[in-house]
Amino acid sequence: MIAETVCSAVAVAGLGIAAVTAYRKRFLAAARLAAYSLVPLGLVMTGAVGWVVDTAFSPTAWAGFGVLGVAWLMFVGTRAVERRGGGSRKERRAAAKAARREAVAPAASAPSLGQSTRTAPEPAAQPQRKQKRAEPAGGADDFSDIEAILKKHGI
């Protein structure tokens, strides 16, 4: 009799803590706390404390199995939401900070004055130097794609 009372008190205390947690807008943690607090209540209702006495035909025992099933569904549901939501609270904060830092970087590289109306003077042609070594066919210094990207960005 004392074990049932203790388990019921633990369940009620856990549900109270879950309610306070939900009031603080931490619903995922509140649902998990509620699931943990329903386990002792379900074990008492199934008759696990006094398993020998009328477990198979007791409606209370079957209701206890239902409560355990609800607790299991809450565990599974909160884990699925947590995995879909991006992990723990610390990970989401770190990702948000990183996103804010990345949002600043592209704008910092953009020109601040916009397009100018006059064109820059062409640099004076420098005399070509003789190549001291022969380069392989195809050219190791083939930077045409890089030059195209730089010209595209006005560099």
List keywords for this structure.
rod-shaped; single chain; 5 helices; mainly alpha; 64% helix; 155 residues
Describe the protein in words.
This protein has helices at residues 2-23, 27-46, 59-85, 89-109, 144-152. The chain starts with a helix and ends with a helix. Helix content is 64%, strand content 0%. The protein has 155 residues and is mainly alpha-helical. It is built from five helices and no strands.
Residue share in helices? 55-70%
If you compute it from the alpha carbons, what radius of gyration comes out, rounded to the nearest whole angstrom? Answer: 34 Å
Strand elements, count: 0
The total of helices stands at: 5
Strand content: under 5%
Please describe the topology of this protein:
Blueprint: H1 2-23, H2 27-46, H3 59-85, H4 89-109, H5 144-152
